[in-house]
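ingest -> validate -> predict -> emit
validate: passed (alphabet ok, no gaps, 320 aa)
predict: started
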Amino acid sequence: MTQYLDFEKPLAEIEGKAEELRALARENDEMDVEKEAAALDRKAADLLKSLYGSLTPWRKCQVARHPERPHCKDYIEALFTDFTPLAGDRNFADDPAVMGGLARFDGQPVMVIGHEKGSDTKSRIERNFGMARPEGYRKAIRLMDLAHRFGLPVITLVDTPGAYPGRGAEERGQSEAIARSTEKCLELGVPLISIVIGEGGSGGAVAFAAANRVAMLEHSIYSVITPEGCASILWKDSEKMREAAEAMRLTAKDLKELDICDHIIPEPMGGAHRNKPETITAVGKAIAHLLAELAGMTPDEVRKARRAKYLSLGSKGLAA
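emit:
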């Protein structure tokens, strides 16, 4: 059963009525409701197109957080073969919020790492809703080191509201682990591709996304803080998250204009959650395209290109 967002309530009513008619017809073979149901389907399709054709930044945040969007695990299972998960940071523990390992993409050996939010109550609690602890970032560092040693491209799938801010995480060096992971991304001598598949929140996302190429799904977001957190700081009122989302320029379109995002991956009408296979296929095509762009580069060329990319950020604003 589809979970509808607040702004989709009119759509829920129309699609619900169409389903009710079809349910009645299934119970009574003599009823012919297909014409009325088809008319409702057309009305719903037009409304869906209207809603998603003019999403505000806050509504984009809601879509990016939709619990039915495909998650890291879905992409790994669909796009990669011979996936061998690797666990633990060789220091404290394994972090279920970060999954990663060796795999093949279109036959090419790669290292894939990503945030996993979980798909139901049990797995969301187990995965800590995609909020990584220090051991998660240290595991990512270990896997990136391994990829560097064997010359394997690294693909990261970013989907986190931010790093876990709990006491235990802070005691174990959360900020240091994030900084080290970001540093490792920047110094890698192999191509690093990052795909923001949902939320790209704060340093918890940057630690995976300081990449040669950053791609974002059309309705994903990437920002230094959540809109609610920004509103709490600036206005002392988390209910002003809509105004914060507008000001933060966190959508894929905004970030493409600022050169923070290199490529926008289109989503099906109504968001990734309405057609997971189509979304996953589009992400796979984007990964293949970005890997081809970086193929054949030497370790020094990879590092220099990545360094140039980040040193040039903000140059458009300075030129203006």
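Residues 34-53 form the longest helix (20 residues).
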